[in-house]
Amino acid sequence: MVVDLVQGTDRGRFETSVLCLARRGQLADELPPNQVYLAPAMKAGSMLIPLALTRTLGHLAPDLVHIHSGVWFKSARAAHRAGIAPVIFTDHGRTHPDPLAARWLDHAASRLTRRVVAVSEPLREYLERKVWVDPCKLSVIRNGVRPPAVADDSAPLSVREELGVPAGAVVVGSVGRLDTVKAYDVLIRAMGKVRANRDGGPPAVLVLVGDGPDRARLEQVIRDANLTDAVILTGWRSDASRLLGSFDLFVLSSDSEGTSVSLLEAMAAGVPPVATAVGGNPAVLGPLMKDQLVPPQDPAALASVIESSLRDLGRAARLRQLGPARVAAEFGLARMIGEYELLYSQLLGSSS
Asked: How many other C-beta atoms lie within 10 A of the C-beta of residue 71?
């Protein structure tokens, strides 16, 4: 989302740079080298007194600082110490459970922030009720995605061969960071139920695209469930959008979500979705696809909707039509960028 925002913002009005704190990250190469900076190594105690980050921001001297999830307090404090205003923070989603200490720290950060953006209405309500953010500072700007590239009809088959998917198998897939909040262990257990109920039909294979701290635990869950031949962990992929075309169904099993970019991208690509009824997911699917929502942490309910979505070809065809139309109408990238540009202009105008 950050890369899309930087690439799409009107360069005649805004000059944008990205400052990474710990490492450049896997998407940094998608931006020109002169737009990406890496902050110097920070010492213990930098959360309270971020001297190095303050000096770096002072050197860059931006007119506005836009912070994203994960580094709110430290970055807002550094911007404040460097005398930079205004500061915007975008919250892309909360951990689950969300520790009280983390919420208090974010509340303190909100006091140093001019505007706090939530990527869904439920997240805005949560920030007001549980993080005690001043409601006058809160805005909602839903994430948006670019239209997918025109797919090569032969691409899904070649991708399946590349991943080692058995011929004729149906593919259930997901794209995201392997983190406990994504509840991929629930999805794996649900797939065990789906496999057991196939009744001689083509086998179902789960493909998880991404990497993260929960990978080792998930590998153990897969072994314990005797699903080593049914689950493929691809690791991090720079071509995740290419892999989407090989999915028969996209599943988001998260315990908490803001507005999931991977869910939007899957729907835009015409992949039928299944998602937990958390955060912004119900708003993404909308009223016409509400039957594709399931409760979180419920492998049986998840398996049931996966099975019916794979079995009912008419339903799958309808979802392939509804998804792209829904994303184009409500979650386009141009709309998201335009709302951020308007916010930037409003705050820069009020600070001059």
From this structure: 20
Lowest mean pLDDT, pick from 125-139, 186-200, 314-328, 334-348: 186-200
Q: Is 45 left (phi over 0), alpha (psi -120 to 50) or beta?
A: left
How far is Cα 281 from Cα 72, in angstroms, rounded to an integer? 24
C-alpha 294/C-alpha 240 separation (Å) is 24
Position 14 pLDDT exceeds 50: yes
Q: Residue by residue, what is the 3-state secondary structure of 215-234?
A: HHHHHHHHHHCCCCCCEEEE
pLDDT digits (tens, 9 = 90+) for 65-83: 999 988 899 999 999 999 9
**pLDDT tens digits, 206-221:** 999 999 999 999 999 9
List of residues 6+ apart from 110 with CB closer than 8 A? 89, 116, 127, 131, 132, 133, 134, 137
Instruction: Classify 164 in phi/psi space as left (phi over 0), alpha (psi -120 to 50) or beta.
Output: left
pTM of the model: 0.91
* Mean pLDDT (the chain, rounded): 93
| DSSP label of 151 | P
Confidence of residue 151 (pLDDT cuts 50, 70, 90): low
User: Is there a contact between 278 and 298 (Cβ–Cβ < 8 Å)?
Assistant: no
Beta carbons of 6 and 22 less than 8 angstroms apart? no
DSSP for 11-74, written as a single string: TTT----EEESS---TTGGGS-GGGEEEPPP--TTTTT--HHHHHHHHHH--S-EEEETT-HHH
Q: ω before 62 within 30° of 0 (cis)?
A: no
d(CA 161, CA 148): 22
pLDDT cut 70: percent of the chain above it: 97
- Per-residue buried b or exposed e for 247-283, using 16+ beta carbons within 10 Å of the residue's own CB: bbbbbbbbbbbbbbbbbbbbbbbbbbbbbbebbbbbe
**d(C-alpha 238, C-alpha 82), whole Å:** 35
Which amino acid is located at 208 in the chain? L
Distance CA 286, CA 301 (A): 19
Strands 18-20, 36-38: pairing is parallel
Written as six digits, the tokens of 333 are 């990238």
